[in-house]
Design brief:
The protein is mainly alpha-helical and about 140 residues long. Helix content is about 60%, strand content about 5%. It has seven helices and two strands.
Length: about 140
Amino acid sequence: GRMFDLTKFTPTRKAEFEQLARDRKDDFEALRERGRWTASVYLGPYIVEARLKFKICELLKLKQLPAVLKTHDLVALAIFAGLWEELHALAKVYENFRKINHLHENAVWRYRVAVPSHKTASNNMNDWLCNPIDGVMTWLSI
């Protein structure tokens, strides 16, 4: 038999990924408002991940994400969303994307104890995500 089934789907629906991106953005902002800097840094990349998974469903005209794309790899998700070339053409957005992805890949934030100095990292994440000119979520229109 095959090692994995390329025709299986995740249970999460396209509309849920769209809502999930909005929810995670709200969570990110709520954490920042409460000074929960460390948790906000950890959560930030999941906004991008959910939005890219929505974009993949949109591109493929599917109601659910193919299970083979059940990954946290933001580069892979951008490729499969058909956005890689466009992303590369936008130097500053790409740089922000790379910084977010680096934090996402590096599981260290999952285990960091909350300290006030993480406010800088949270402010950086907020800029990389939400900068009105070259934020990744601005580019992904959310």
